[in-house]
Amino acid sequence: MCTTALRNIDLKSHEGIHPRGGVIDLIPVHPLVNTSLEEAGSVARELANALRKEGVSCFLYGAADEQGRSLVDRRKGLGWFKNTKLPENPSSGWTAVGATPYVLNCNVTIDTKDMAMARRIAKAVRRPGQVEAMAFPHGDGIEIACNLTALDQVPPEQIISNVTDLAGRFGVGIVQRTVIGHTVDRLINLATEALGIPKSLG
After folding, report:
1. N or C end: fewer C-beta atoms under 10 angstroms in the chain?
2. Contacts (Cβ under 8 Å, ≥6 apart) of 1
3. Given CA atoms 30, 36, 41, 43 in this order, what sign does their dihedral have?
4. Which one, of 33, 87, 43, lies nearest residue 63 by Cα?
5. Hey, is 75 helix, strand or coil?
6. What is the set of domains in the chain, with CATH numbers?
7. CA distance 93 to 37
8. What pLDDT digit, counting tens, does each position of 17-54 carry?
9. Where are the alpha helices (DSSP H) in 97-183?
10. Measured between alpha carbons, how far is 104 from 95 in angstroms, rounded to an integer?
């Protein structure tokens, strides 16, 4: 998939509404069953090394990074959000490769262009170890993009409700709600089916 993307997409001429730092913007590796976060980190490093051989600028995060830095911290350090530090190959951009516990994405787009307000909302919904949140311009609004790492404690429905309530206090409505991903049990079922593994062994 990465090779196909690199062959067909030039980031310098590509257009899209969602923020992205590279043709292959992000490769997250998550341990699900019978494996550890450390093993996931090793897989992530192998992927990054393979991409570097193709001329792709990669940075590591989570268990793949020697310092265990988060994706947000790594992107901030590279000036990813301000496009202040260009990768070696501008046509492919930056690729983030890392390993973390399973993450579900929950994104809520609010009907405003007030970034200061959106950042206040993102800060309000953050929870250390459970919810990462940032604000991005998205179409005619701003997306409150959340990574949920403790679904048993903070489900996406709670995030959507919280953002809706906080935006409402500013007199701002919701444009779009998007949940990206599956439950861990659903992912395991999909993986065992795709790999042809008997359920008794999955």
Report:
1. N
2. none
3. negative
4. 43
5. helix
6. 1-99 (3.30.990.10), 104-185 (3.30.70.670)
7. 27
8. 666 778 898 999 999 888 899 999 999 999 999 999 98
9. 115-125, 156-169
10. 19
Number of alpha carbons in the 13 Å side-chain half-sphere of residue 178: 14
Q: Is the pLDDT of residue 118 over 90?
A: yes
Q: How distant, in Å, are the alpha carbons of 11, 26, 46, 91, 140 from that of 87?
A: 11, 15, 20, 9, 28
d(CA 147, CA 88): 28
Closest CA to 163 of 116, 113, 123, 108: 108
Token pair recorded at residue 99: 């390993």
Q: Which of 30-34, 108-112, 195-199 has the highest mean pLDDT?
A: 108-112
State the Cα–Cα distance between residues 122 and 145, nearest whole angstrom: 8
Return all residues near 82 (Cβ < 8 A) that are at least 6 apart: none
Rounded Cα gap, residues 20 and 11, in angstroms: 9
pLDDT at 34 (0 to 100) = 86
Spacing of C-alpha 154 from chain mean position: 17
pLDDT reported for residue 17: 66
Q: Encode 101-121: b = buried (16+ Cβ within 10 Å), e = exposed.
A: ebbbebbbbbebeeeebbeeb
